[in-house]
Design goal:
Oligomer: single chain
Helix content: over 70%
Shape: globular
Distance between the termini: 39 Å
Strand content: under 5%
Largest sheet: none
Number of strands: 0
Radius of gyration: 21 Å
Order of helices and strands: HHHHHHHHHHHHHHHHHHHHH
């Protein structure tokens, strides 16, 4: 058995263990395997293996998350939520669409898909039960809205994606925004499909108490909202590096005591940081060993240039069923795309990244994923949890196939 094949099998074992043992952090396993392979097979030192750690990528995740945890701690995100909820005015037909737009906006502003879902899922699922809205529909639109916004360059996942684009040589300034809009458009198609299939247009019960009063921001919240606006404007219009903008503004908010820095530091997604760091270290080592070239050769053998984006979306979706979409699947799949296209004789690398990006996030409605689990947890007592679990699981798993079909229609056919 060659070292390249041995390392590839080790990666598969790590991913399978992460899928069957949700109590284990795949990043910790990947880091341990990387040190074992690097020091055992290649004779590398600790510093050489550690050099595979993607420092800029991890700083981007921490900086953006810290900025929006500060905004959460002083109530700014809650005020944004109340402001948007006023738009629905208790109309049950538009409530699912309002929550789709709200999670989209919050996710795109910077908190990302998990934070936006965690903030809104309890409110959305409670309102769905009171208004007679199908809870599966509400869960799908909340999760899909969060994922539609999460590739914004101002969001955590968007920052991860931008760093991966640079890693494979795609450094066009406006490219992250183009990919964000493309992913948002495709995710919106599935949201509209769900709205039609689950009868969102039917009139439910009026909901009392949904139309809130006038939103009043205190001085700290106004300044925080201004900082968020500056961050989004700087990243999306003036191409300010997200890592720099996030840390500068987070430091400013902390200096002015506009948020609880100590509490925000404790709430940072350290498990996601470990996921991304560990997988990236292992992937760097696999690249040194030639394992990635072996993997792309295997994929190319069963691929076709006419349907390569559909294949990438399908593989990304299946891998995401038991793994983190942004922490594991994207760092795994995006670096494979250039060599895969080269072996197939050419293709559009940007379209391949788009296929991986939305394919990896399409299945997140499943209750086995973080977003789906947050919606399950938000369902009020007395509701049929087993029925919701079955429907969300079926929808989530089917999205791997739907994602492949959409990739073929929107990305493969127009080539």
């Amino acid at each position: 058995m060659t070292p390249a094949l041995l390392a590839l099998l080790a990666l598969i074992v790590v991913l399978v263990l992460g899928a069957v043992r949700p109590d284990l952090n795949v990043g910790v396993l990947a880091t341990a395997v990387a040190f074992g392979l690097g020091m055992g097979l290649l004779g590398l030192g600790v510093a050489e293996v550690s050099a595979f750690l993607p420092a800029q990528l991890l700083l981007t995740v921490v900086g953006i998350a810290l900025l929006f945890e500060l905004a959460r701690s002083n109530g700014t995100l809650d005020q944004i939520t109340r402001a948007v909820l006023r738009l629905a005015r208790g109309n049950s037909r538009v409530l699912p669409l309002v929550f789709f737009l709200l999670t989209f906006a919050l996710s795109a502003l910077g908190p990302g898909n998990i934070a936006a879902t965690a903030l809104l899922a309890p409110v959305a699922m409670g309102i769905a039960a009171r208004a007679g809205i199908n809870p599966t529909l509400m869960a799908i639109l909340v999760c899909t809205g969060a994922n539609a916004g999460t590739f914004s360059p101002a969001a955590v996942t968007g920052g991860i994606n931008a760093a991966l684009l640079q890693r494979i040589g795609l450094e066009e300034p406006g490219l992250p925004v183009r990919i964000f809009l493309a992913v948002a458009a495709i995710q919106s198609v599935t949201a509209l499909l769900a709205y039609a299939l689950f009868g969102g247009y039917r009139v439910g019960r009026p909901v009392e108490g949904v139309s809130v009063g006038r939103v009043a921001l205190n001085p700290a919240q106004r300044l925080t909202l201004g900082a968020i606006g500056l961050f989004v404007l700087g990243v999306m219009v003036f191409n300010v590096p997200p890592v720099a903008g996030a840390f500068v503004l987070a430091a400013l908010l902390a200096l002015l005591k506009l948020g609880d820095l100590e509490q925000s530091m404790r709430q940072l997604p350290w498990s996601v940081v470990m996921l991304i760091g560990g997988i990236s270290i292992l992937m760097g080592l696999l690249e040194r060993l030639g394992s990635l070239e072996l993997l792309t050769s295997l994929l190319a053998r069963y691929s076709s240039p006419d349907a390569v984006n559909a294949l990438l979306a399908l593989l990304s979706g299946l891998a995401s069923v038991g793994s983190s979409s942004s922490g594991v699947v994207m760092p795994l799949m995006v670096p494979l795309a250039p060599e895969l296209l080269e072996k197939l004789g050419g293709g559009d690398l940007v379209r391949a990244v788009i296929a991986i990006d939305f394919g990896s996030h399409m299945v997140d409605v499943s209750p086995l994923s973080t977003l789906g689990a947050l919606c399950m947890a938000g369902l009020p007592e007395g509701a049929d949890r087993s029925r919701l679990f079955r429907q969300m699981l079926l929808w989530g798993l089917s999205m791997a196939l739907v994602g492949a079909l959409l990739a073929f229609v929107f990305l493969d056919l127009p080539q």
